[in-house]
Design a protein that fits this description.
With 266 residues, the protein is mostly helical. Helices cover 58% and strands 7% of the residues.
């Protein structure tokens, strides 16, 4: 009976604080305040695990691009945080060419991805994609869909507790919630990235170029799977859709290549 009451309490908590996504008409059953709490909790774990880059100018470049994009994105009710993470050679290789976002406006990129993308437009395109996930509140929608024991774990993690095992379980549950966006979510984030690039006065071709760069890396056998926070639709499909979004039409190359290859991107 206690478990039933606990679950009902969590459901009532989420329903009483429902909001609309700024980038879509979806109803979100998690308040902005609670989302930011979850994000802070996860960000602390991430920043404990990974160091900052040796060159402070790398962080400044990433942060400047992030701030430029965040000023024009659909969501202005949160404070955005942009940080580069250092990935050592031979260590955490699955993170080598990746970026991710956490609830509440935390956007991260691993330093090797910045190096391989090279241009500000390509780097900004990845940031814009993560901002798309944030403004559409994709991670929070996954949280809403997991009401029950995982929701209880998350609330336990955010409340004062001396039970380390409970907090560890909560952390694992939070990570699982970030593991896979749907294809719909990925395409929506891609569409928003093109929109934000244009509104920020950046070259939206960077969205296409960033995906094509990672496709070339995969063909050379150098890609790293992004396993912690995202799984993705076919890369060729995303490139085709992004090209249509940028140019306003789908060219022949995009049409014949769409759907041919699975891939993991940012």
């Amino acid at each position: 009976m206690r478990n039933v009451i606990a679950v009902l309490s969590v459901i009532i908590f989420f329903v009483s604080s429902c909001e609309l996504s700024r980038a879509s008409d979806d109803i979100i059953l998690v308040s902005t305040e609670k989302e930011c709490q979850i994000g802070r909790s996860l960000a602390e774990k991430v920043e404990e695990k990974y160091d900052a880059p040796d060159d402070p100018l790398v962080q400044k470049r990433f942060e400047d691009l992030g701030k430029r994009l965040s000023k024009i994105c659909d969501r202005q009710d949160i404070i955005y945080h942009f940080k580069v993470l250092k990935a050592e050679e031979g260590e955490d290789e699955e993170n080598y060419y990746n970026a991710f976002c956490l609830p509440g406006g935390y956007v991260y990129m691993f330093e090797p991805l910045m190096e391989v993308l090279e241009t500000d437009d390509a780097i900004a395109a990845v940031i814009a994609h993560e901002l798309g996930h944030t403004t559409a509140r994709h991670a929070v929608k996954r949280l809403t869909a997991s009401i029950g024991i995982k929701a209880l774990m998350i609330l336990a993690a955010l409340a004062p507790s001396r039970d380390r095992s409970t907090l560890a379980d909560a952390g694992n549950a939070l990570t699982q919630l970030m593991m896979a966006y749907s294809r719909k979510d990925e395409y929506e984030a891609d569409t928003l990235s093109v929109k934000y690039m244009k509104q920020a006065g950046l070259d939206s071709e960077g969205v296409i170029k960033s995906m094509e760069t990672l496709a070339r890396l995969r063909q050379k056998g150098r890609e790293r799977k992004y396993i912690h926070y995202h799984t993705h639709p076919y890369l060729s499909e995303r490139i085709a859709k992004a090209r249509a979004e940028v140019k306003g039409y789908a060219d022949f190359k995009s049409y014949i290549n769409a759907g041919k290859e699975p891939g993991f991107v940012y």
